[in-house]
Write a structure and sequence with these properties.
By secondary structure, the chain is of the alpha/beta class. The chain has a single domain, classed as 2-Layer Sandwich (Double Stranded RNA Binding Domain), CATH 3.30.160. The chain contains four helices and seven strands, in the order αββαββαββαβ. α2 packs across α4.
């Protein structure tokens, strides 16, 4: 086969090598496996007070599901308004995911060493307040929780693998937060819980 006849075939091979792999298929992050709190309020409101800086070391804007989005989903899945008045206010006070570089083996030895190259830390802090009626500015009852988790990744991790690590990191820190909030809601908001199911 002449070179001219092979050029289209070679072009297809080169172009196919440049195509990025499809994004990682990740499950939905939900909390529907946990019991719902039926609250004696008319609505559940989520307020995101955390303002991401959109620059390193913060990377929460790059992860598949940010702590803020996961907290919104937590509130939808676990808190149900069944009352006639008042509000449950879920406030996201912190929702960071931080990236820091780790020292890797330099020189020739580094070529033959697979080091952990980066560390990721997820931090989420949330309060749930009950404001019982119109015009009431202070919380009548409040529960809060804060959780942190870290993961490290090795050199040469693929973008899809990194997405999966980020997803698992946020999912893990949210499960920790969920356990704390579950206990604190039962303790501090008990007067406003009609049922748990």
């Amino acid at each position: 086969m002449s070179l001219l006849k092979r050029l289209p075939f070679l072009a297809v091979v080169v172009l196919s090598a440049c195509v990025a792999p499809p994004p990682a298929r990740l499950p939905d992050m939900t909390f529907t496996d946990r019991p719902r709190f039926l609250l004696d309020v008319a609505e559940v409101q989520v307020i995101d007070q955390y303002q991401p800086p959109f620059r390193l070391p913060n990377v929460e804007h790059q992860v598949p599901v940010s702590p803020a989005k996961a907290t919104e989903r937590w509130a939808r899945d676990r808190l149900v308004a069944v009352g006639g008045s008042g509000r449950a206010i879920v406030t996201i006070k912190d929702g960071r995911v931080l990236e820091s570089s780790l020292r890797v083996t330099p020189g020739v030895q580094g070529v033959f060493t697979q080091d952990q190259a980066a560390r990721y830390e997820a931090i989420v802090e949330v309060t749930v307040e009950i404001r019982p009626g119109a015009g009431v500015l202070t919380a009548d009852a409040i529960a809060s929780a804060r959780a942190e988790r870290t993961r490290t990744v090795s050199e040469g991790i693929s973008p899809n693998e990194l997405d999966r690590v980020h997803f698992e990191l946020v999912e893990g820190v949210m499960r920790d937060l969920d356990l704390q909030l579950d206990a604190n809601l039962r303790r501090f908001l008990v007067a406003y819980i009609r049922d748990i199911r």
